Amino acid sequence: MRRSPLTLPAGPRLKWLFLGVWLLVAFAIGAGDLPAKFDDAQDNESSSFLPGDAESTRALAAAEEIQGDELLPLVIVYRRADAELTAADLERVAADRAALNRELPPRTEPYGPPVVSDDGSTAVLEATIRANGKAETLLDPVDLARGQVESSARPGVETAVTGGAGFAADAVNVFESINSTLLLATAGIVFVLLLIVYRSPIFWFFPLFAVGLAELATRGVGYGLTEIGVTVNGQSASILPVLVFGAGTDYALLLVARYREELRIHEDRHRAMAEALRRAGPAIIASGLTVIAALLCLMLAEVEGTAGLGPVGATGIAIAMVSMLTVLPATLVIAGRWAFWPFIPHVGDRKADETHGAWRRIGERIAAAPRRVWVVTTVVLLAMALGWLNLDTGLTQTSNFRNDVESVEGQKLLERSFPAGASAPAYAIVPDPARAAAVADALERQASVARVRPGPDGPPGQLLQVTLADDPYATSTYDRIPALRRVVREAGGEDVLFGGPSAIERDLRVAAAKDSKLIPPIALAVVLAILIVLLRALVAPLVLIATVILSFAAALGVGYVVFDVVFGFAGSDPAMPLFAFIFLVALGVDYNIFLMARVREETHRSGPREGVLRGLAVTGAVITSAGIVLAGTFSTLAVLPLVFLTEIGFVVAFGVLLDTFVVRSILVPALALDLGGRAWWPSELARANPRPAAPRGAEPAEARR
C-alpha cells in the first residue's frame, strides 16, 4: 500500500494525537466563549446588507455624521376601528407617554406629544433611538413600549409598536431565536437519518461527534473573521450550520462506505482505514475544494451580507472536510469494528458488488439505450425549468415574516389614517444648504411624497426628512426611488443624496441583480477548472457542468411555482437565484465528483462501459444516502419564520434530491455511456485498453495475513 499523508489519522499511535488535538481545540474555543462571541458579533444593521458604494450607503453615512448616529423611529400606534378615540383613550396615550419617558433606556430620546389623525381614529407616539450596533439598544425600548401598551390596554383600541426600530427589533428577535432552534433541528434530522442509514444504535455518534466539533470550531474561527472585518449577519449565520452539518455528514458517509468495504478485505482496521482514506480522501478533498471555491466567489458580491457569507461559509466547509478526514477516522479506528453493531463487517463478508444489486440493474437498463434516456431526461428537466416564467421578486421586508409580526401589523394600522411612509421616513442630504428649500419644494410637488420637513445640518449638508405617501416597504415605492433621486438632483445639484429604508431596499435589489449576473459565470469557471484537474479530462467536466446547470434551472423553476401556488408567498428575494446557484452547483457537483472519480478508477480496470456500470453500482447507495442527508439538513431552514430562508431551504433540498435521484443516477450515467471513452478526452484513458484486474475482494491471501 502506498503511503500518503491522508492516512496519518489511521495510524496506531497518531489516531490518539489527532483526537487529542481536536478535543484541545474544542476546549479552548469553549473556554474562550467564542461561539457566543460569534453570535454577538453578528451585524444586523442596515449597513450589513448594503452595497458598499450604493447611494443609500453614502446617504446613511452622511446622515449619521449629521445626526451623530443612525436614528431609528420607534412608533406606537393606537387606533379605534370605525370610531374616534375617546377622551379616556387619549388620557391613556398621555399616561403611556409619561410612563415611558420616566424610564427611558440609554440612547432613546423622549417620546414627543401624541399626534392624532384627521379622522380622530388614530394617535401615534414617536421616540427616536440612536442605534449603535448593539441588539439591546433596539430591544430594550421596544420591549418597554410593548409592555406598557399591553398593561394599559383598553377594549376596542388596537395598539402596536412599529417604525424602523420596531421592524429592526423584530428582525433581531427572529435571528437571535433561530440559532439554537436551527442547530437542534439540524442535529436532530442528521441523527435520525444516520440511524436509518446505518441501522445501528451506536454508529450515529461518530459522524455526529465529528461534525459537532467542526461546527464548534467554525463558530470559533468565524468570530476571528468578524474581528478582521468580515461582515456576518443573521442570514449568513443561519445558513452556516446547515452547510457544516450537511457537507460534513456527506463526507462522513463517503468515507465510511469505503471503510466498510476495506474492513471486508483487511483484518487490521488501521490498514482498512488507511486504504479508505487513500482511496476516498482525494474525492472528498476535491469536493470540499469545489464548494469552498464556489463560496469564495461570493466575496465579489456588492451586497455586504452576501460577500460576508463567502469566507464564513468556505471556512465552515474547510473545517468540516478536515474534521471528517482526521477526527472521524481516528475515533472509528479507536472504537473498532463494534461501532457498526449489530451489522459488523468481517473479512470475507459480501461487500458492495460491482456486478449485482439494484444500482447495477439501473445502470444496465440505462446502458440499453443511453441516448434515449438522456434526451428524455433532459426534456423533462427543461420542462421543469419553465417554472422560471412564474418568477416574482415581490418579497419585501413586510412580507418576509411567515408569522404575524407586531411591527408589520402596526404599519397596517398606521397607514389607514396617516401617510404610509410616516413610520419609515426617507431623507435627502443637500450639500448646499442654500438650495435645501428648492429641493424641499420639488419633493413636495411629487405625488409620492406626503410632506418634507427640515432636519439638522452639518458638514455633509442639510438633511431633509421626507415622508412618503405610500407603503415604504412596497415594491412600487422602491421603483419610484430613481425618479425621486432625479428630482432632488435637478433642484439641488448632482451631489444631493437620497436615502432611507425604501432607498436601501431599492439599492439592495439592484446590487443583488448585478451579483446574480456577475458571480455565476466566475463560479462555473472555477468549478470547471477543479473538475478538469481532478478528472484529468476536458469532455467529462464540461458535461458535468452542463448537467448541474440544468439541475439548478429545473429546481428553481419548480421552486418558483411552489412558492406561489402551494405556499402562497408574496414572491421571492432578488438574491434567491444567486444563493440557489452557488449551493446547488457547488453541492450538486459533489455527487458527480463522487461518482465520476469512482467511474474513472473502474474504467482503468474494466473499460468505459463497464467502468460506468461498476462505478454506479458501488457508489449508488452511499451517494443516495448522502443526498437525502444533505436535503434533510437544508430542509431544516423551513422551521425558521423567515420566507427567504424557507425558500432557500426548499429549493436547495429539492435540487439536491433532483440531483441525487435524476441527474447523478440517470442523466450523468446515460451521457457517460453514450460518450464512451470520448468522455475522458484528451487523457490517455480515452484511448487506452482496460487493464485486466481481479476484483479487490479477490485479494484475501495478501489482505488477511
Helix and strand composition category:
alpha+beta
Number of strands: 8
CATH fold group of the largest domain: Multidrug efflux transporter AcrB transmembrane fold
CATH homologous superfamily annotation of the largest domain: Multidrug efflux transporter AcrB transmembrane domain
Helicity range: 55-70%
User: Secondary-structure element order, as H and E?
Assistant: HHHEHEEHEHHHHHHHHEHEEHEHHHHHH
The major pleated sheet works out as: 4 strands, antiparallel
**Count of domain modules:** 4
Low-confidence stretches: 692-705
Please compute the radius of gyration using only Cα atoms: 29 Å
- The CATH architecture of the largest domain can be named as Up-down Bundle
So how many helices?
A: 21
N-to-C span: 14 Å
Describe this entry's structure for a reader:
By secondary structure, this protein is of the alpha+beta class. It folds into four domains: 1-52 and 200-351, Multidrug efflux transporter AcrB transmembrane domain (Multidrug efflux transporter AcrB transmembrane fold), CATH 1.20.1640.10; 69-170, Alpha-Beta Plaits (2-Layer Sandwich), CATH 3.30.70.360; 358-404 and 537-700, Multidrug efflux transporter AcrB transmembrane domain (Multidrug efflux transporter AcrB transmembrane fold, Up-down Bundle), CATH 1.20.1640.10; 425-499, Ribosomal protein S6/Translation elongation factor EF1B (Alpha-Beta Plaits). Helix content is 63%, strand content 8%. The protein has 21 helices and eight strands. The strands form two sheets. A four-stranded antiparallel sheet has the order 2-3-1-4. A four-stranded antiparallel sheet has the order 6-7-5-8, with helices on both faces. Strand 6 (449-458) and strand 7 (461-468) form a beta hairpin. Residues 692-705 have low confidence and may be disordered.
